[in-house]
Amino acid sequence: MFLTLLLASLGVTLGQQDQPNIILIIADDLGFNDVSWHNQKVLTPNLDSLARSGIILEQHYSQSTCSPTRGAVLTGRYPINMGLHPGALTPLTPEGMFTNVTTLGEKLRSANYSTHAIGKWHLGICNKAYWPTNRGFDHFSGFMGGTTDYYTHNTRIIHGYDYRADTEVDYTANGTYDTTLIRDKANEVISGHDKNSPLFLYLPFHAPHDPLQVEKSYQDMYSDIPDVDRQKYLGMVTALDDAVGSIIDSLKQSQLYENSIIVFLSDNGAPGGNWPPNMGGYVMEYGASNWPLRGSKLTLFEGGTRTVSFIHSPKYITPRVETGMVHATDWFPTLLSAAGLEHDEDVDGVDQWEKMKNSSLPEPRQEMLYNLFVPVDNVYGVWDAIDSWPPISAIRVGDWKYIWRAYGFDGWSTPAEQGTGDEPGVPKEVKHQLYNLALDPMEKENLAEVEPEIAEMLLNKLKATYEGMGAAGNFSYPPPSAAGRPENHGGIWEDGWC
């Protein structure tokens, strides 16, 4: 009783003392086949150790591209409910993630967590209301847009410097490899953390998104693979793995590890089959692999949406491989529940915390929306080859997946180390496709004509979702604004133009 009163007098409850540290790591464009537990050729010993001593989530789903997944993770909402369903935000988009949705950072900070975001933000540049320090994070170190040069931190095509310390431009980052910057800043935060409050460390890495840049020593680890892009890409993956290993060592040295929950996921499947295409002068580089899954990033096939993920915690989690459905939106309620906090009832995410701790419980999630948007492109013409109707959309209920419409690379690309290399793809449009993912995870047998009642039921669910969206159903991002160009702001990416 005396101890409880003493802690209360210090503004600390026993519950707060026990709240876990939360380390949320997002890899960028990591292929399903690009970690060692899916491909023995890949060198990821640190991630492998964490995954195998945690829960490997073999049916984890992200959105098919960058910004929507980041928003889904941080808000627990499908992109259709936070204004990100059209896809990734470009640097000149005069728009960002809706500011009327609560973020994981805001919820945790209100519960005495110290909150830090380090890495790639990609949820809006044009107004500081979209920036991390206004979305629940005490501190931010990283870049605001979608990709930069890993060393100079300048964007390509439209040249501008993009690296920040909180809201200030951080020129000291110039010349240092991006993965190294994130690693070192994370270690600095961990070593300096005040243990009177729990830590929320959000680490959205840039790697292994293109441009394919890495120290030659990492590339040389894969010199036997007859594909230079594949060598560089996997070198970037191994450099990311080393960074994660260093961060885990820091947690242990700071005595934070034992009471930590570590979540790892990719923001989408990897590029492949010449998709996504070159856009607006930006030349894509392809070195990743989603084998054996169909499709790639920016498609609603499994290769674009089913992603590498695990959760690890020495205190709360016992090792296993989980085959139940988990969606990126689930991390919002799940991590809040782990911290002993409540979440808004209107989120799309499902609380999976009890299931994570107890494998014998029923699967919490039985249904999932892949995405739904009308393909109208005001930027690079990605969707110019197809009509705007019907929406690009797909849904899964149980083992059944229905695709109303999809577009992009629809094949299966094998990596160079398997002997055949990545076959160039031609973007294709598909409609009215039904797959039983339990029997056909590679999406090879369309059963829409075999099981017409199931197909119609799932199509009607998508139609009802579209109708329920109202005006948002036809929402697309506004055209790029020249007011945001770096030459108007001293050569940097800045706010104040929307």
Give structural notes:
The protein is of the alpha/beta class and 498 residues long. It contains twelve helices and 17 strands. The protein has helices at 2-9, 14-18, 45-52, 66-75, 104-109, 178-191, 216-219, 228-253, 302-305, 331-338, 353-357, 452-469; strands spanning 21-27, 55-57, 60-61, 114-120, 139-143, 164-165, 168-169, 199-204, 260-266, 306-307, 309-312, 320-322, 326-327, 367-373, 392-397, 400-408, 428-436. A ten-stranded mixed β-sheet has the order 7-6-5-4-8-1-9-11-2-12. Strand 6 (164-165) and strand 7 (168-169) form a beta hairpin. Helix 6 (178-191) packs parallel to helix 8. Residues 1-16 have low confidence and may be disordered.
Would you spell out the secondary-structure blueprint of this structure?
Layout: H1 2-9, H2 14-18, E1 21-27, H3 45-52, E2 55-57, E3 60-61, H4 66-75, H5 104-109, E4 114-120, E5 139-143, E6 164-165, E7 168-169, H6 178-191, E8 199-204, H7 216-219, H8 228-253, E9 260-266, H9 302-305, E10 306-307, E11 309-312, E12 320-322, E13 326-327, H10 331-338, H11 353-357, E14 367-373, E15 392-397, E16 400-408, E17 428-436, H12 452-469
Parallel strand pairs: 1-8, 1-9, 2-12, 3-13, 4-5, 4-8
Antiparallel strand pairs: 2-11, 3-10, 5-6, 6-7, 9-11, 14-15, 15-16, 16-17
